[in-house]
Amino acid sequence: MTKNNIIIALLLTGLFFNSNWNAYAVSGNPLIVPAPVQMTMGEGEFLFSPNTVFAVENREQKKIVDNFTALFTQAAGFTPKVETGVKEAAVRLTTDVAMRPEAYHLQVSSGRIQIKAADEQGFFYALQTLRLLLPPVIENVVRVDAEWKIPAVTINDEPRFGYRGMMLDVSRFFTPKKEVLRIIDCMAMLKLNMLHFHLSDDNGWRLEIKKYPRLTEVGAWCVNRGDATFPDRRNQKQGEPTPKGGFYTQEDIKEIVAYAAERQIQVIPEIDIPGHSNAALAAYPQYACPVVEDFISVLPGLGGSNTDIIYCAGNDKTFEFLQGIMDEVTELFPSKYIHLGGDEAWKTYWKKCPLCQARIREEKLKDEEALQGYFMNRMGKYLQTKGKVLMGWDELTHSKIPEDAVIFGWQGYGEAALKAAAQGHRFVMTPARVTYLIRYQGPQWFEPLTYFGNITLKDVYDYEPVQKGWKPEYEPLLMGVQACMWTEFCNKPEDVTYHIFPRLAALAEIAWAPKGTKDWRRFLKAMDNYTAHLNAKGIIYSESMYNIQHTVTANNGKLNVKLECIRPDVEIRYTTDGMQPGKSSALYTESLEINSTTYLKCATFANGKQIGQTLDLPLVWNKATAKPILNAQKIDNLLTNGVRGSLRQSDFEWRTWDAMPEASFTIDLLQPEVIHEVALGCLTNYGMGAHKPKSVKVEVSEDNARFTVVGEKSFTSDEIFKEGNFIEDIAFKINNAKARYVRVTSRNAGLCPENHLRPGQQSRYYYDEIIIK
Question: Is the dihedral of CA 279, 282, 283, 287 positive or negative?
Fold first, then answer.
């Protein structure tokens, strides 16, 4: 990133630095994320210069300070001195054993900085606070001209939780080592201390294991399906080349672990068992159940029924294999924790496997779910012989939980983790509905394609892990919180950081700041300071927080248009003539009322500059627009709101009826109309099982009692289950029928066929707008 680009980026966030840079420039509030526990502003500023000396007590402190002063070497062109045992120094680190772990005391005056802490972590976090107080271009890799000063301030600070983590999935998308190191450094600025490293899954094995070389020779590589999105990728056929993938050598891992340790981050490896194991079993198929007849490959996408192939629990050789892997994993990773997954292990083959069934009988187990409990307990005991503690996803609560295991609550809002807490187990909250960074982080019309619904920056920020109704004994067992970055839809490193940042800053605030101290406006300014540092580092992140979410609803024959942005510090300006909005365009203050075809365009502005993307929202009128749907659920009115949906079925414009065999709706046109055509916007998203219905029937009536069929269509299986992601209109030509009521009845197409990427899954149809002419 050039210097000019950095300046532009800082202007956009209102944080353009100059010679009077002040990290507390907004109403005297700290621009530090996560927010310090206690802060008092002083008078004056401290200036770093080539003459600045840091006094440290020992080699460990010096290593931490050297990491900090290296920033000046690159950006400022000088390196402050670091000396051990000197009496005269502008910056002094002093050990105070009375302080709590990870806590620090930072006192900055015009001529001196005093840092106190009880441990290395506390000193490191104090320096990260100094880092965020400096001009953001301290992150530059080339020299820039700036005054390297910080405001006088006194801070007493410590974390709320001991576990402050992020999971990085490098199986579905292999993130190169260089990029992993950059992510670790960005985590460190946020005082996060756990990197949960998801190294194996169906889609790739990423860790060199010397005892089993085929894990990376075979398991690290899959077929290349070009531009097809993750859900649309067909499995490998035998003999197909597998050029796509990668893995970390053991030397790479040692470098990653050491780099993280220098930044007080513990790397927790995850080797997922017994499910999510196709990559390993592609390399060593003898450890799958003997009843598996399908070709086992590394899965390039969802995998269909192949995801049912998991490790055989009845074969003792399976455990010898996994123990051999753990021997090397535990040597490579000094972390006391090893994550063994345990999620989504489908028992299809265990139910058929004579070895697994024999194991159930021998161990007097209740069923296949109890067999997984046996599997995880056996591996947990082996980890204990290595001095390690097993971590696992909340599916481990479905059977006997391994001794001392730590459970990660992920399903829904993480409630299953409380089942573990009730048994005295420690747990980490990482709920999919709040902290899964793969989900859309802003209005979906602007976002790259991914799964499911929205988790905005504010959604993460508003999350409180300790919920009302918890039993008193649960909270002491809560180790902390974690965000999870699954990478199904990532094709380059920039895609990964785009999804992680800036939402990870909100997770850090939850993990560090005391409960009950949240201030959304303050956080935004502090987060802007952090993203200015990301800009200077050349990190790609999302600016979706500046984009506008629209809600258009029918109301008595008119359309009500609501525009929202999660940032309260921006203006929304709009036009209704199709022209690009500018700083002088109409200011949005309340919902708009529309009664005819209108080409609405709107965007967010700050200080007279557009900062969000332009929302282009054509509201196209037809005879059904703004008309009521009788006996409707609220969502049914999406069918007459004048807005056509996007290719994302979760963009809040589509209506589906789930698995109902037949569904119908009736539109009241409010007066008799002559009808020439009826059309339904219908979405196909093959990878997500969204397809046309089996049949559609259109009926009309003048009294809503006696209906006449005016159009009917049925579709073949080939027509329904087309591959791709597209929108088409199911249209009916009507012979000048006069009617007030129009009823549409659709029949579901049933299960996806066997050759589908989601075989046997219930298909759904999605409508976005009914058009009546």
Answer: positive
